[in-house]
Amino acid sequence: MLQLYKSRHFVLTEIRTTGKKQTNGILCFEGLPSVYGSPKEVCAIEDGVVLRSRVNYDTRSREHRQGMVVTVSGKNGVTVTYGRLAHRFVNEGDYVRAGELIGIEGNSGSGMREFLTLEFRRNGRRVDGCEYLGLEPKSRVFTPPHDDPADTVCSVCGLSDKTRVFIDSSPEAPEVWKKILAKLENI
Description:
Layout: E1 10-18, E2 23-31, E3 41-43, E4 48-55, E5 68-73, E6 78-88, E7 95-96, E8 101-105, E9 116-122, E10 125-126, H1 129-133, E11 140-142, H2 149-157, H3 161-168, H4 173-185
Antiparallel strand pairs: 1-2, 1-11, 2-9, 3-8, 4-5, 4-7, 5-6, 6-8, 6-9, 9-10
């Protein structure tokens, strides 16, 4: 399972297609509100060496839109750039492991709302991010695995204990939780 946020639940909100070959070059993610109260902590998706860890100040550069970035060397010569960070915890030359905290989702760069961009490149050219990560190119919610549908729904939606007790008081509660979870998975 792709672990991009420390809280392990997030959504792929946008896929930016670019170039003559219409490559899904930039993926936009947002960390969903966490019932754990953790900030939107971004984790490395794979092991690698940090090639860049900086803020792009040059407003004439296309990279300026990415704001604060961390670029990590990936497998098969592909580099992964995490953009629009509010804060970064790694420096150039550091070795990071998959799941290690590298930054906080933010709104540096262009745009107003907070989200994270991922860009994949090999030899300077964009690589299809959906293909690289094995994702279907449509919006998708990622949630932590739970055995109980009620646990998953409460975690993802941030439902209070009071709300859970209310729903659980219904004789149809197991079916209600399954239906809500099915709707979440189709977002």
